[in-house]
Amino acid sequence: MKNSHEPSWLRVPERSEVPSEVETLFQKFEHKVGFVPNVAKVFSLTPEHFLRWFHYYDFLLRNEQSPLSRKEREMIALVVSSENKCEYCLASHSAYLRDITKDAILPDVLIHNYRRAELSERERAILDFAIQLTKESYEMDESNVQTLRDIGLTDEAIFETAQVAAMFNFTNRLANALGWKPNEEFYSQSR
């Protein structure tokens, strides 16, 4: 078994091994947040997969033209990751949500039981949809979509809600199966 301080149970490439496009992203992370997130280090084992995944992930979570707010997208990330017990995404996305909301309590409540959080009707419906997609997508039907339409979400917003939830179901499973460890910096960020 690997050292518990390693970012993954798999081999993590040295910086000197990664292609220039990956190194450029690493430098952007260092400039923006002061460190390279372990998810990037681990994913760099397959550079083309990493770059394709990251561009989609980055677009889903940070697109300023999104019909969902950044807060809503980060809340989806947290409740899905909580349901999947993904240590990596819980640490990183609670830090991101604390940073964008300046609320140190909301991420912890969402992690433990989002049903007890003080949420708007829209936020609660979005999170309910994301959890059902995570736990029982095979039972979903048009009424689940209609519930979101009834509170004012467009079909584009509903599609994006499903995409963000699906992205985290995908990433949570990779992280859990391959032993991804969060950077320690996430735990104290924006507290």
Protein topology:
Elements: H1 20-33, H2 38-43, H3 47-62, H4 70-83, H5 87-101, H6 106-113, H7 121-136, H8 142-150, H9 155-178, H10 185-188
Q: What's the N-to-C terminus distance? A: 33 Å
Q: Supply the number of helical segments.
A: 10
Rg calculated over all Cα atoms: 17 Å
Number of DSSP strand runs: 0
The best one-word shape is globular
List unreliable stretches of 5+ residues: none
Given helix and strand content, the structural type is: mainly alpha
How are helices and strands ordered from N to C?
HHHHHHHHHH
Strand content: under 5%
Q: Biggest sheet, open or closed, and with what strands and sense? A: none
Report the mean per-residue pLDDT as an integer: 96
Percent helix: 55-70%
Could you explain the architecture of this structure?
- With 191 residues, the chain is mainly α.
- Helices cover 66% and strands 0% of the residues.
- It has helices at residues 20-33, 38-43, 47-62, 70-83, 87-101, 106-113, 121-136, 142-150, 155-178, 185-188.
- It is globular and about 50 Å long.
- The model has no long low-confidence stretch (mean pLDDT 96).
Primary descriptors:
191 residues; mainly alpha; 10 helices
Q: Quick summary of this structure?
A:
With 191 residues, this protein is mostly helical. It is built from 10 helices and no strands.
